[in-house]
Predict the structure.
Amino acid sequence: MLRRLAILGHRSARPGTDRIPQPGASSPRALPTPTLIFLHIPKTGGISLRSTLLTAVAPHPTFRILHPINDHAMLAAMPIADRRALALVEGHMYYGVHEVLPRPATYITLLRDPLARLRSFHRYVSRERWHPFHPVINGEGLSLSDCVARALTTELDNYMTRSLTSLEFANVPFGAVTPEMLALAKARLDSIQLVGLTERLDDFYSLLCKHLSWPNLRPPHLNRTSEATELPAGRRQGGINTPVGIDEDSDEGAILRLNRFDTDLVAHASRLLDNRLAALGIASSSSP
């Protein structure tokens, strides 16, 4: 079946939710000239964007990656005609999926304030009993800082930077992300026209629709947990990327120091978004 799903249980994907919506009543869209690749970094608001993309490309075939290594291999093993027919490849992956697609590809990705993303990850795992880390976090009452101190998962260590390198770096251990990996991730972002931020979804959707010649769409709000305690974007001050109101010597200050590469990458992504909006004559909703 062409419109297949890869459902080999990545830990951030909930079982039973991997369904592609049926095409609506409108006439089918033409197959997009490039295959769209949505590099979905967990806890960046990507479920909402995924829903938008699946609806936009329906009824054409799509492929979902949940396990970034196994499912990448599964995609590469598909017959070339099936890969050529794909309108969208989406999911939790490392940069490089375009190398196994026979048609030109356009990447799409969202980044998020690192501390907000990690807080969201911790809340999500604490809530979802199916998650492999749920018994550990809830059973032992681990805080986010506890999880980081235990090096529980590399998803807590500069995971945005990791995702934008390549599969070659998939086994880099916790705490071992390097400036060279950050430089590579920035170069990847430079090559991606559709880069957005969770904190600037309106701007990103304006860019997305303009670039793909789609009708103006507003970002949906799906799969959202309470963000009441999260900090607004663009509030860096002196020290090592420390947000206003957070002591560098606190637990959260330590988390930010560990994730300094992701903080740098998000700032780079924000500048890219500004530049791409300006190049298309789109006024930013975050402008004064």
In short: Strands lie at 35-39, 62-65, 88-91, 105-111, 194-197, 236-237, 242-243.
